[in-house]
Design goal:
GO terms for molecular function: UDP-N-acetylmuramoylpentapeptide-lysine N6-alanyltransferase activity. This protein is 39% helix and 23% strand. The chain contains twelve helices and 15 strands. The chain has an eight-stranded mixed beta sheet, with helices on both faces.
Amino acid sequence: MRVYHFEVNIDKKEFNEFVQNHPYCNLLQSYQWADVKENWDHMHTGVYDENHQLVATGLVLIKRLPLGFTMFYLPRGPIMDYKNKSLLKYYFSELKRIAKKRHCLFIKFDPAIHVNDYKSNEYNENRYSDTQEYIEIFKEIGAYHHGFTMQISDTVQPRFQSNVYNTEDWLTNLPKHTKRLIKDADKKNVKIITGQLELVEEFSRLVEMTEERKGVALRNKDYFELLLKTYPQGGVIFLAVCNLKELSKGAHERKEVLEKEMENTPENAKKKIRKLQDQMNSTLKDIKEFDEMLQNMEHPQGDIAIAGILSIQFGSTCEMLYAGMDERFKKFMPQYKEYVENFKWAFDRGCTWSNMGGVEGTLDDGLTKFKDNFNPVINEFIGEFDIPVNKVLFKPAQKAYEMIKKRNSSE
């Protein structure tokens, strides 16, 4: 029988090296994610084997509840070989022992186990053959499975996510219409700039505009600054910018050139005249669009931020956490160009994948359809599990937790 040793305060370097080099590597199980979750207590747990090798880690977030109770949560964790039953049982038996001392009602975890991976246009309900094996293993440690839920709101972390993988042909395999939309952005002189804290102000403004448009609450400037300060090596903001003044000036200059060319074109050159007239109509349309937009801009000088993404690289993974856009520039198609630039950035840094975030399991929502423009793979995770610690209060605590979650999601 193997001998294990449990620790609750693993060194940061050792902890992160283990997570980053593990097949289940995930940003939410990085050491410093505890710093992001400021309103939770935490423990950096781990298990060593008889050779003093770290064989499991778990960032445990601890939520304080009324009456002195707590709940433990391991987002996308713990990190270990889940089929190693002796290790799994040991880890959770030790965690339960500590949880009892902290008056914990239940332990929630949602491991990064994929039970299905497929292209969204090839919807697949056939889960991997070992899915049930994992569920049975977790049952042996007393865990309750929440089932194969379908909605993002059903779980803390989305059970379905839209992910672009680093393959040799990922760029050439983008849909034709996506490539066309990127060209449309180029025609509008949309440029992509990258940075960190110096871009937070503009990025926050774009997120606020998205919140107002969609009627949702995302995050604020302070939170974005916290993310970038917590991950100074892996955090990045992509901003799509354009210069309306320059666009308008260029369109007016094209108009003058076309007018002179039309004046100097013989009347019998009907084919050329038609071509010039089509170009003039397109130019006049641009002038009308750009000038109207300029009239509605408070500060139209210089480059204007029109869309943005905040992403974090951790190990060989990239999480595209937040995005925002100025709807007035929707026809400029900035998001298509900046998403592709984000993928390039991640893959140039050695990332295996770049996750665009959660989608509904039905794959029929607007978010899924937008993300489909980048030819992603849909990852279906195994879902959430709860382990009762206080068996008497477990059921009432679960109901209270669900009520609070529903209330928070509706606010």
